[in-house]
Amino acid sequence: MFSSMKNYSFLIYIILLLISCQKSTNSVKEVLFDDFYNSKSNKILLDVRTPEEHKNSRALESKNLNFYDQNFKMELIKYPKDSHIYIYCRSGRRSGIAVKYLKENGYSNVFNIKSGIIGIDPKFLDFSSLNN
Fold this sequence. Notes:
Blueprint: H1 2-21, E1 29-31, H2 33-38, E2 43-47, H3 51-56, E3 62-64, H4 72-76, E4 84-88, H5 93-104, E5 110-113
Parallel strand pairs: 1-5, 2-3, 2-4, 4-5
Protein backbone atom coordinates (compact mmCIF):
# COMPACT_ATOMS: atom_id res chain seq x y z
CA MET A 1 0.00 0.00 0.00
CA PHE A 2 2.82 2.41 0.83
CA SER A 3 4.45 1.70 -2.53
CA SER A 4 1.27 2.46 -4.53
CA MET A 5 0.75 5.67 -2.55
CA LYS A 6 4.32 6.68 -3.29
CA ASN A 7 3.78 6.02 -7.01
CA TYR A 8 0.54 7.99 -6.92
CA SER A 9 2.28 10.98 -5.25
CA PHE A 10 5.07 10.84 -7.81
CA LEU A 11 2.52 10.82 -10.66
CA ILE A 12 0.73 13.88 -9.23
CA TYR A 13 4.08 15.65 -8.87
CA ILE A 14 4.92 14.98 -12.54
CA ILE A 15 1.51 16.21 -13.71
CA LEU A 16 1.81 19.43 -11.68
CA LEU A 17 5.31 19.97 -13.01
CA LEU A 18 4.14 19.58 -16.61
CA ILE A 19 1.22 21.94 -16.08
CA SER A 20 3.43 24.61 -14.52
CA CYS A 21 5.87 24.41 -17.45
CA GLN A 22 3.24 25.02 -20.11
CA LYS A 23 3.35 28.41 -21.77
CA SER A 24 0.49 30.64 -20.72
CA THR A 25 -2.13 31.21 -23.40
CA ASN A 26 -2.63 34.74 -22.06
CA SER A 27 0.93 35.85 -22.70
CA VAL A 28 1.27 39.28 -24.26
CA LYS A 29 2.63 39.33 -27.80
CA GLU A 30 5.06 42.20 -28.19
CA VAL A 31 5.71 43.73 -31.60
CA LEU A 32 7.07 46.88 -33.22
CA PHE A 33 5.30 49.58 -35.23
CA ASP A 34 6.85 47.99 -38.35
CA ASP A 35 4.78 44.87 -37.67
CA PHE A 36 1.56 46.88 -37.78
CA TYR A 37 2.43 48.78 -40.94
CA ASN A 38 3.66 45.63 -42.71
CA SER A 39 0.58 43.61 -41.76
CA LYS A 40 -2.01 42.94 -44.46
CA SER A 41 -4.65 41.72 -42.00
CA ASN A 42 -7.85 43.40 -40.85
CA LYS A 43 -5.98 45.63 -38.41
CA ILE A 44 -6.57 48.40 -35.91
CA LEU A 45 -3.96 50.62 -34.25
CA LEU A 46 -5.05 51.94 -30.86
CA ASP A 47 -3.29 54.69 -28.95
CA VAL A 48 -4.34 54.30 -25.30
CA ARG A 49 -2.73 57.53 -24.14
CA THR A 50 -4.69 60.60 -23.09
CA PRO A 51 -6.23 62.82 -25.78
CA GLU A 52 -3.62 65.47 -24.96
CA GLU A 53 -0.77 63.00 -25.53
CA HIS A 54 -2.39 61.83 -28.77
CA LYS A 55 -2.79 65.41 -29.96
CA ASN A 56 0.92 66.14 -29.43
CA SER A 57 2.30 63.07 -31.21
CA ARG A 58 0.64 60.07 -32.77
CA ALA A 59 1.26 57.20 -35.12
CA LEU A 60 -0.24 57.17 -38.60
CA GLU A 61 -3.64 55.44 -38.74
CA SER A 62 -4.01 55.40 -34.95
CA LYS A 63 -7.29 55.78 -33.08
CA ASN A 64 -7.23 57.28 -29.60
CA LEU A 65 -8.90 55.50 -26.68
CA ASN A 66 -8.09 57.13 -23.33
CA PHE A 67 -6.80 54.53 -20.87
CA TYR A 68 -7.92 56.72 -17.95
CA ASP A 69 -11.48 57.20 -19.16
CA GLN A 70 -14.07 55.50 -16.95
CA ASN A 71 -15.58 53.76 -20.01
CA PHE A 72 -12.20 52.58 -21.35
CA LYS A 73 -12.81 48.84 -20.87
CA MET A 74 -16.32 48.99 -22.35
CA GLU A 75 -15.04 50.88 -25.39
CA LEU A 76 -12.07 48.55 -25.80
CA ILE A 77 -14.17 45.41 -26.14
CA LYS A 78 -16.35 46.99 -28.84
CA TYR A 79 -13.73 46.19 -31.48
CA PRO A 80 -14.31 43.03 -33.55
CA LYS A 81 -12.66 39.93 -32.08
CA ASP A 82 -11.43 38.85 -35.51
CA SER A 83 -9.39 42.03 -35.99
CA HIS A 84 -5.67 42.24 -35.38
CA ILE A 85 -5.46 44.92 -32.69
CA TYR A 86 -2.14 46.66 -32.13
CA ILE A 87 -1.98 48.84 -29.03
CA TYR A 88 0.56 51.43 -27.96
CA CYS A 89 1.01 54.08 -25.30
CA ARG A 90 4.06 56.09 -24.27
CA SER A 91 6.30 53.27 -23.12
CA GLY A 92 4.27 50.03 -23.12
CA ARG A 93 2.76 49.80 -19.62
CA ARG A 94 -0.81 50.96 -20.35
CA SER A 95 -0.90 49.14 -23.67
CA GLY A 96 0.29 45.94 -21.96
CA ILE A 97 -2.59 46.18 -19.50
CA ALA A 98 -5.06 46.78 -22.33
CA VAL A 99 -3.74 43.78 -24.29
CA LYS A 100 -4.09 41.53 -21.23
CA TYR A 101 -7.65 42.74 -20.70
CA LEU A 102 -8.58 41.95 -24.31
CA LYS A 103 -7.02 38.48 -24.08
CA GLU A 104 -8.99 37.81 -20.89
CA ASN A 105 -12.12 38.71 -22.86
CA GLY A 106 -11.58 36.30 -25.73
CA TYR A 107 -9.43 38.30 -28.14
CA SER A 108 -6.54 36.36 -29.62
CA ASN A 109 -4.97 38.69 -32.21
CA VAL A 110 -3.86 41.50 -29.92
CA PHE A 111 -0.37 42.93 -29.79
CA ASN A 112 1.48 45.31 -27.49
CA ILE A 113 3.81 47.68 -29.32
CA LYS A 114 6.60 47.28 -26.82
CA SER A 115 8.55 50.45 -27.49
CA GLY A 116 5.54 52.72 -27.29
CA ILE A 117 5.50 56.08 -29.02
CA ILE A 118 8.95 56.89 -27.59
CA GLY A 119 10.44 54.19 -29.80
CA ILE A 120 8.58 54.98 -33.01
CA ASP A 121 10.45 55.55 -36.24
CA PRO A 122 9.64 59.15 -37.29
CA LYS A 123 8.42 57.89 -40.68
CA PHE A 124 5.36 56.49 -38.84
CA LEU A 125 4.44 59.76 -37.09
CA ASP A 126 1.34 61.61 -38.20
CA PHE A 127 2.11 65.30 -38.61
CA SER A 128 -0.83 66.11 -40.87
CA SER A 129 -3.24 67.37 -38.25
CA LEU A 130 -1.17 68.05 -35.15
CA ASN A 131 -2.52 70.78 -32.92
CA ASN A 132 -5.93 70.69 -34.64
